[in-house]
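Thread title: Can someone regenerate the structure for this chain?

I was given the following input by a collaborator and told the matching structure tokens would be attached. They weren't. Posting the sequence so someone can regenerate them.
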Amino acid sequence: MSITEQLARFAIECGAGILTPAVLASAKLKCLDTIAVMIRGARHSSAQIAQRSTTRFGGNRAATVFTGGDKTSSPQAGFVNGVSAHALEYDDNTRGVGHASVCLVPGCLAVAEETNASGRALLEAFAIGFEIAARVAKGLRPALIDNGWHPIGIVGGQGVAVAASRLLDLSVWQTRMAIGIMASSGGGVRKNVGTMGKAFHVGHGVRAGIYAAFLAQDGFAVDPDIIEGADGGGGEGHQRFGLADTFSGIGRYRLNLMVDQLGEELEIGRNTTMVRMHPGSTAPSSTVDGMIALAKKHSLSADDVDEIIAEMTPQCVAIAPYAEPADEHRAKFCIPYSLAVAFIDRDVRLAQYEVERIAANDVRALMRRIKVEQPHDLKHHRGQWGENGINWGESRLTIKLKDGRILKKATPYSKGWPEDPVTWEDVRAKYFECTAGILSHAQAAEAVDMISNLERVDRIADLVDALSTRRTM
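Best answer:
Regenerated them for you:
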């Protein structure tokens, strides 16, 4: 049985027993977190542009767009909501996988609303789609990243395609077709990280995954075994270039990771996801926490500082490479800016990435005294985050003060990471932070209660209505 068939068969044939207590708790936490940042992100200019673009295309009023509560086709709604959910760089990140929730939640919401599915059906589809995205990601990474691809539009889109197939009650064969169609649809170029393009990668992956499932439902046929290539006696003919060979390079993948022990323990139920409590690139958030802790403990001011040295992994620097915070997008991937504003403000939230704060003289002055280094013992660039103990976020801080004191702190992890996981109450507080001024407190509370009992919600449309900004207009 091919890799593609094994994944499709698992997705369609596994039973409701996959919703173990651990899977249920994790899935609902991820839904709450992703919906929170999606509601807030819908106010971002990238989401507003995405929403305006969809009005040009029309579409069946099947699923809700959270930028204003209007309805459009589920692929278009998934696109806009995916852009919204990733626009603020505040969604979660799973080690060795990437930003899976930010694709799966908008994708599942859109298709579940169109199909009048229950909360339990959505949770099943979400957990299965998350598993497929994780399996494909672990098989293709890290070569996928090293080749210049931003992975989530490729692997997250596969998760959405499979989740949509489950919600649409497709056959195993049709699901193989959806996987194959999605394989020809995914993309995302790393040079667009630090621009609106990063959120586009997510939105496009959501849209493409939903569309792939609908095409498969109507009989659109492609290669049924798209993941693996075969030379077919022709060396590098067309058959050679399946999904793995095309995106990661011939032989630079591990297909066994896509199917080994498939179904025994779902990724979504494992403690491998990092909930971002600071917007911005995930890996430097450990150093941000360390900076805040040192500044608070010693009651430091910027005038006390002679120099700050941040020792970080090359992978962390590669993911957050910008020396200057040219705008809010690059600021979130600019280590000196994030560390400077963390030191001064003792906090890094959405307000720290507003235009006025980015341009402020006090932050810019401290940035010039921050040096980012990559010591030899932290060089894990070719490692897969979370695999064999490799931690991209491992770092050390040294603050040299003008009075001669030297303060040091190792910062291996951040609040929200598996080593210091968040609680439901932590994410609930983040949810109310994100929805403040958009939903009334009563409306926001109604929706969060529904999410906490999502397996008992009869119609996802009821949750969508509870989250609709039209109720507050």
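Residues 285-410 form a domain with the 60s Ribosomal Protein L30; Chain: A; fold (CATH 3.30.1330.120).
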